[in-house]
Write a structure and sequence with these properties.
The protein has about 240 residues and is of the alpha/beta class. The chain has helices at about 15-25, 35-40, 45-50, 70-90, 115-120, 135-140, 170-175, 200-205, 210-220; strands at about 1-10, 30-35, 55-60, 125-130, 155, 195-200, 225, 230. The strands form 2 sheets. Strands 1, 2, 3, 5, 6 and 7 form a 6-stranded parallel β-sheet that branches. The protein has a two-stranded antiparallel sheet with strand order 4-8. α3 (about 45-50) crosses α4 (about 70-90). The two termini are about 30 Å apart. It binds zinc ion (ZN).
Amino acid sequence: MIHSVLTIDDIASKNTRPFVDYLLEKKIPAIMFAWGKRVEENYENALYAVKNGIIVGNHSYSHPFFSKLTMEEAIEEIEKNEAILDKLYQDAGVPRVYRPFRFPYGDKGGENKDALQKYFREHGFHKVKDDQIPYAVWKEMGLDKDIDTFWTYDFAEYMIRPDSGVTMDDILKRTTQVNPDLGLSLLSDKNGSHLIIIHAHDETEELVPQYYRTLIDLLLDNGFVFDEPQFYLPSENQ
Ligand SMILES: [Zn+2]
């Protein structure tokens, strides 16, 4: 079994709701990272996720490259979304216990990186427990110390677009190709532990209906088990 944590980026979308239904059907826990702007645009679907036990984390308000922002702008992007997510949980009648954050594009803020990590530490953001991740590169990159939620595998199915030439076959093929950083492919990794990303994009849904079902079913068929994500407050551990 490959114990993994599933994360779903860029909610809320139209397909957030059927995506949640699929997760409920398969009893798969997940963190969905939301941009505030999209929550405003698809509020009912974001509410549906929270009401159904999905942990909704902060993925900024407008999904910018954080290395292009001043520290002040970066904090505004984070806090504007925090306020939206607080209200979302309140409207759902669900206590908001965990506050994970994921940077758009994995861009940790360039010269503001250390200041942003300090900000997360001092403002109650939760780190997703990652000491089960066995790959040397995780520590080499300092990801074991960072508060934001990075990943070990991104399906990159968002690349399926009318003009990209990338198809579902290409995305499936990538799961058997060796990742040079890890030294193995996703599906050949029999003792691994992953933090996986899929995106909730309506553009992908249009081209490949229920693509997430195909991708997650593939993992289930290959012995992946999706664990309830665990969180801690880094400030309590240091
Ligand atoms: Zn994103």
